[in-house]
């Protein structure tokens, strides 16, 4: 190949086959340009329909974004309390809520909803979003301005709020005549939501929501699978994602770029400990037991999984030294966990005993923060860096129920082996299984047939929306 086509090939790779837009200041977000040097190119091409939809969205966001004429006009309606004539731009405001893994998944969900309903996504910066993530769209901002009028109410929004959609339905405050359309509504899609809140996933309700200029959304769930069950979105979704199990993979790579601070954490760690390996194995350990651990049954489960699935070589417990018959491979194990106990056991295992293959195993863990500290800046930077480092693995093992692991698998384009959630402190049998797709699981989906107005198993309606491996009542795209 000549230099020219080599360069364009490299550039194409850098822009992830057209997924990423040009037009950013490179130094303001190094990860956007450098990521392709560290990850394998995706084996899933984004559809050209998705790419053109993203380019159109970027235009709309630029036209409607913070402090534009249209933004200010729509803001007037918000301030006045009721919607007037239909506005040029409509918005979905994502409210910062829950752990970082959850937040990454819900931003992607809200963005897909924005694409489907021609809304502009604005991200409430909370206390750390702008520190963790780059701007997602060129020549504008996706962060909600600090002087946004009802910002102080975000933390108090809940199921009982008067502006809550489900609550308004209950009190019969909404009907379809245009005069009564409010300027904004609060959508409560948190795991504890009730039957009325869940009507969000019905076509009839979507046709009413369409008219509301401002939607404020609080959620801790990856609700994308249920969007695929709304008939009016069906056609558009199949054009955007002909390969259904790639939604978060593409949207996550498109939206979530680590800030320069976080990129520094990722790069220094990767280059110092992981770069030289022949194979990288990520093990994400998240327990939902009381106490931080380490727990013996969890350690036993992990080792049972890696042995059974041949993800890590066995050790020779009696051997002192094995002269390898071939050049030994260097494999690195990246462990992430709030506790350092598992790491110490695995590291000692491979230091104190030779592997039967003669391969060398280096074991690393970037941090052990003991417990979740969602409000703290450096804590969240580390969490984001670790999710990202896991996504650079060749082989991945994740924990049931954890959005932290879902983010890593989706960004990495990896189908991990998932460790089942242990019951009664015993090792599940089998300890783990390979997942069906790299999509995250929607933990709290509705089970409702909007047309028949009865309960229904939403995991049995279409072949591409199934129950999850780790949560029997959850839904995921495959
Ligand atoms: P989930 O609770 O596992 O679904 O994941 P979230 O990311 O939403 O919330 C868990 C939070 O706990 C993370 O955001 C971190 O703040 C912290 N955390 C959990 N596991 C780890 C870990 O392995 N490393 C680090 N640095 N933080 C973790």
From TrEMBL:
State the family named in the UniProt similarity comment for this chain: Belongs to the glycosyltransferase 37 family. Belongs to the mitochondrion-specific ribosomal protein mS23 family.
Top-level taxon in the UniProt lineage: Eukaryota
Q: What is this protein called?
A: Small ribosomal subunit protein mS23
One cellular-component annotation, GO: Golgi apparatus
Q: Which GO terms describe its biological process?
A: cell wall biogenesis; cell wall organization; xyloglucan biosynthetic process
Molecular-function GO terms, alphabetical: galactoside 2-alpha-L-fucosyltransferase activity
Q: Where in the cell is it found?
A: Golgi apparatus; Mitochondrion
- Recite the UniProt keywords alphabetically: Cell wall biogenesis/degradation, Glycoprotein, Glycosyltransferase, Golgi apparatus, Membrane, Mitochondrion, Ribonucleoprotein, Ribosomal protein, Transferase, Transmembrane, Transmembrane helix
Q: Name the principal localization, coarsely classed.
A: Golgi
